[in-house]
Every structure is written in C-alpha cells, then in structure tokens.
Amino acid sequence: MRGNVILRIAAKLLIPCILLFALYVQFHGDYGPGGGFQAGVIFGSGFILYALVVDIDSARRVVPAVVSRVALALGLLLYAGVGVAGLFLGGRYLNYSVLADVPTTGQHLGITLIELGVGITVAAAMVTVFYVFAGEER
Amino acid sequence: MVVIGLALVQVRDLFGVVMLSGLFTLTAAALYVVMDAVDVAFTEAAVGAGIATVLMLETLALTTGTEKVTRHRAMAPFVMVVVTGAVLIYGTLDMPRYGDPRAPIHHHVAPRYIGESGREVGVPNIVTSVLASYRGYDTLGEVTVIFTATAGVLALIGRSRRRRRQRQSGGGGEGAG
Asked: How many domains does chain A have?
C-alpha cells in the first residue's frame, strides 16, 4: 500500500490520535468506560494500521517480534505479581487494599497496575498474532 | 443485522464476506450502545470490527479469495440450526423483560456493588471496580486465556515458519512455500 498517498497521509494523521486515545482509555478506565482490554485492543489496532499502511518491516523495527512476545508474558506477570505483592503485604491474593496505607488508595493503585498488565498483554497479543500471520506470506 | 446476515450467506466473494462480517459486528456494537453497555460496545467495535477483520484479510491473503461452491444441499445441518434457534428463542421467553427491576440479576450482588463499591474500592466507574477488584480472579483468568491463545498461535504457525526458514537457508531451497 505504499503508493496510496491519501491512505498513507490519513493514516499518519490518525495513528497518533489512536495511540493517544488508547492511553486515555487505559488510564481513564477508573472514571469512564474502558480499561485494559479496550485500551490494549485500540493500541494494538493502531500499531497494526501503521504496519499495514507504512511497511511491516519498519513496524518490525519499531517493535521487534521478541519485544511483543516478552511484553505478552510481562503483562500477565504484572497482573499476577500484584496479587502476590498483596499476599506478601499480609492480604489475600488479589486484595489490593493492603498495597497502600489507605485501603481505597491501595485499591486504586492495584486496579491501575492490573489494568496496565491487561493492556500490555492484550496489545502484545494482537501484535504478535498479526506478526505471525503477516510473516506467513513470504 | 438480519439483512447483513442474509447477505453474508449469499455472497460468494470472501473479501465481501469479511467486509460484511465487520459491518455485522459494528451494527452489534451500535446495538450495545443503545442498550447502555458502552464498555461492551467499545470492545466489540475494536476487536470484532477492527482486529478480527484484519486477521481475516490476512488469512485470505494466505489462502484464496473465493468460496468453493458445494452442490449438495445439506438438509441435516439446516434442520439442526432451525431446531437450535427455536430452542434458544423458547429459552428467552422465560427471561425477565429488559430493564425489569424485579429481575433476579438486580437482586443478587448488584445492590451491594452499587451501594458499597464507592466506599470499599473508591473508583467512580463501578464496572471497573467489579472487573478489576471484586472479580479480580475472573479477569486474571481472562488474561491468562489471551496469553495461552497467543502462545498456541505461536506454537502452531510460528514454529512451522521458523523451521521452513531454516530449511530454506540450510538446504538447497526446494519447495518452500
């Protein structure tokens, strides 16, 4: 799709907005609709749009396949790790109230962290699957 | 959605089928917005209409663009679909009306979530506090499912590709494709 100027310019304008919107959905999930899943998917699709319109090889240079695979596991580990951290601080598994002095602050911190974990895993999963499929063509 | 569904059955060009299914999901997302389930609509639009369509197109690029026309008429599957559909519709007859305040779902744990989550969790969005805090285990399970599914895709497709590349570079490069 290199030759398609209109598509490329439009995508170039849109991609930063999509990625920014994904981050907004990620960190504003406590207040508005959205959260890790949605943010991860939006981020992943924004990146895939970049790979489709610009070039998959330059996309691979931005996020190598290794990075997306490591991020895939990292997100899940972050989620589970928050649970274990609660365990060490004297609470039950995935009880965030013990993460800070004030229970609601702890809950807030825990939710933000696990949503981040969810977002990382989902975005990485999208990119990884996309890479695998796209790599098949050659 | 019914119109799109019927069109999906008729169209033979698989590119059109993918586009129509994307449209189908987008309509479903609009339906969720009408039913005030913004979160679900969000996910449906991004996953169903966005990612799934892209992946289907990639699969098309790998395989072929037209459906193989089968001549025989499959009667047994048709009967099965009709019966299953009828049973499902019969099942909905028993359900409480949409938005009925006396429905059982509004009396189980929902009042507690609505009444107490502000004090216990302190996050304005109750959906988030239910998903991430009260049902933290469920969400952890979902993330694990995503992780496992992706690992499965990698194991199925990613490995065969690597092996082929090795064969290409190592051997005389015969018949890889």
From this structure: 1
Question: In Å, how far is B159's CA from the nearest CA of chain A?
Answer: 10
pLDDT < 50: residue spans in chain A: 137-138
ipTM over 0.95: no
**Which of A102, A97, A98 lies closest to A89 in space, CA to CA?**
A98
What residues in A contact B47, CB-CB < 8 Å? 41
pTM of the entire predicted model: 0.72
Q: How many helices (H) and strands (E) does chain B have?
A: 9, 0
**Closest among A76, A61, A52, A135 to B157, alpha carbons compared:** A135
Of A79, A111, A135, the CB nearest to B140: A79
Both tokens assigned to B33: 């917005």
Asked if A130 lies within 8 A of B58 by C-beta distance, the reply is yes
Domain range holding A105?
5-136
